[in-house]
Specification:
alpha+beta, Phenol Hydroxylase P2 Protein, four-stranded antiparallel beta sheet, globular
Length: 89
């Protein structure tokens, strides 16, 4: 199995997003650095709009992730409710 990741800027906007990703992906490893957070996961990483909305306390459009996105790796599958990173085997 291969590792996928997403890296986000560290700021007030991304803290609840990162918490939501951790909730939905207990297998993920979070690397916190002063200016960014990189989240690695074996196989698949799923980012759910509903979980982010619970953490931020408002409606959230997954396209907002792009504002603070630094980098990602993996095949991206996206709809209105989820963004999934994975590698096709």
């Amino acid at each position: 199995m291969s590792t996928v990741f997403i890296a986000l800027q560290t700021n007030e906007d991304t803290r609840p997003i990162i918490e939501a990703i951790e909730i939905d992906n207990p297998h993920a490893v979070v690397h916190r650095q002063p200016a960014m957070v990189k989240i690695d996961a074996e196989g698949t990483l799923v980012i759910r709009k509903a979980t982010i909305e619970e953490q931020v306390g408002r409606d959230f459009d997954l396209q907002e992730l792009h504002i603070n996105l630094i980098s990602l790796t993996g095949h991206v599958s996206e709809d209105d409710d989820t963004l999934t990173l994975s590698w096709n085997s």
